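FIELD: query
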Amino acid sequence: MADKTWRTYEEVAHYLLDQFAEQFGLDHVAPKQKVPGHESGREIEIDAKGVKEDGVGFFIVECKKHKKRLDTDKLDAMAFRIIDSGADGGIVVSPMGLQAGAAKIATSQNIVSVQLNRDANEFEYVLRFLKNVMIGVRDFIHFQDKATVVKVPAPTQQEGMDPGA
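FIELD: result
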């Protein structure tokens, strides 16, 4: 059976980036979609699309759930997709971050590196970007109600109850 955790990783990354969109100067982050390649004439599938606060520009979001730091080849390809689509930049999400050469490409092409732990979900995560660290923690509290019913006999007249009162 093929490992489909990458899909969940993309969905969680999309959800969290949308929650923190303002931190990136974005209005919101839209889910996976295709954008036109102006130079190549093809459709480019992107993992998410960050829409700028002015609503005019956008950022390509790519998620790479790799076990090693991303190398220059991955960022070269992303840089071309940014240029081809006319995007203002990009956000690359990965658990391990970027190699030194890839970091240089990211800087030159306005690509923000975001580190998101491999086993993240929408409640429990560690998200690092732009010298920020966002941590999500979930805990469960269990409540238990307990009632005890005791049958108490009604007081009688002999016990001092006046029936005319």
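FIELD: remark
The longest helix spans residues 5-19.
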